Amino acid sequence: MLNYLIATVLALLIILSLKIVLRSRNLPPGPRGIPIVGSIHKIVPNFHETIPLLAKEYGNIFRISVGPRTIICLVGYDIIKEILVDRAKEFSDRATSVIAKLCRGESRDGIASSPYGPKWSANRKFLLSTFRNLGLNKRGIEKTITSELPHLVEELHGCCRSGNLVDPSLALEYATLNVIASFTFGDRYDYGDKRFLELLHINNEFFQMSRVLRAPTMFIYSIIPFLHKLVLFDSVKQFAKAARKILDFVQVEVKRHLHTHDPQSPRDFIDCYITELKNNENQFMTEKGMEMSIMDLFQAGTETSSTTLRWAILFMANYPQVQEKVHDEIERVLGLQREVRYDDRMRMPYCEATILEVQRKASITPIGLVHAPSHDTTIRGYDIPKGSSVFISYHSMHFSPDHWKNPNQFDPENFLDADGSVGNRDAFMPFGVGLRRCAGIEIARQELFLYFVGILQKFDIQKPDDVKSIPEDPIVGLTLSPHPYKVVLRPKF
Ligand code: HEM
């Protein structure tokens, strides 16, 4: 009896102190939630649309709750710049999530999901220095990317031969996957190679499964913190299994590298990392860190680029007047035969502006990756507790009438200055900004320009005769991707 009494008094005390703590906090405003569940249903799954809409009601900083957890949404250029640039160190942590733990383990090794700190810093710096040291400096990256271009063009030619209407997705996935495979495993694969097709299959499976992450039911794992240790929904199990398959693939490659490792002649990222581990100079670099960094390269660096290129081809089919100007510039600068180089962009402002406009209009990573404050802090007078998730609405900037003349139209002029050159646009952040900015930005920018120009140099793109316009509403997954579509590709020679 006495035990019950003590337990009841303790419970009342905890509830009371929680209420006092919560009341004393001046959290940002936000929509009313359902008891226990919170207000997450107000923003999932279409974050890109719902967050800017709610900002109209609650302001550029507002709060969403998921059980005991707080999500802070930031909307618009001023506040996003203040947090990611001016106060970058405070807001460069990543919130813990069940998904990150399932994919990266409890300690969240690697780069993208890793907490802000020495482990993240060591792995990110090592990745960037390996891009340089392996000869993958700007020119070297370019060689890896351009050596894939003829295979990409050939693959598209093959698609044209086997039918009138072409879905370009697979060819684009082959090319972007091979760029990352070359950097990580040392060599490109032939597109028919069994190991390559296996890698493509498991990588795609991962992205398909990832769609479940935006389902409202997923947030039950945020409401009940230890639930994932007790029970996993089937869809989550399949997602974790898909991530595990990529890890298995990576581990086989690491083993192969360990057998043939020669510190004097590093072939790729794995060789460089093994040398670092053998030298044992940095306690924050571990075998797990290597595996998880590679997982990051595949998960952050393949689908993002191929999806952007899929949007590019879709927009070219929907906007023939833009495509005509792109073709004119390519013919004037390169002709039909000369292979494109990255520095050609200096003389091809219209093509460059078109690719930037594709990135703006498609906004494939509408809230980037979730940020978190490293300690209790405030934003514009509101309390922001440590451990909150911070959703950055890049999408809101990319579609803001304050920054773009016709934000809902596809118009490369958005990036052209009065003298016809490509200008910087502050409110354009497709790769994020600040300390957590995309680590593969150099590779991505080159892939987009070189593959876009390389394809448009060889093909005319048209929508099918019976289609008025290819749908531009996105499928919401880890990225915003186009619905499957087909176009007519007419070889230009
Ligand atoms: C069009 C292609 C790409 C887009 C739009 C893109 C976009 C982004 C965005 C928005 C972020 C999150 C930034 C933030 O947290 O604020 C990110 C992070 C990251 N990206 Fe990319 N990315 C692309 C391609 C690539 C490629 C090709 C690679 C690798 C070669 C890559 C590797 C990474 C990594 C490792 C991170 C995590 C950075 C960190 O947490 O420190 N990305 N990317």
Automatic annotation (TrEMBL):
Keywords: Heme, Iron, Metal-binding, Monooxygenase, Oxidoreductase. InterPro entries: Cyt_P450, Cyt_P450_CS, Cyt_P450_E_grp-I, Cyt_P450_sf, Cytochrome_P450_fam2. Its cofactor is heme. The keyword Methyltransferase does not apply. Belongs to the cytochrome P450 family. This is Cytochrome P450. It comes from Clavelina lepadiformis. The lineage of its organism: Eukaryota, Metazoa, Chordata, Tunicata, Ascidiacea.
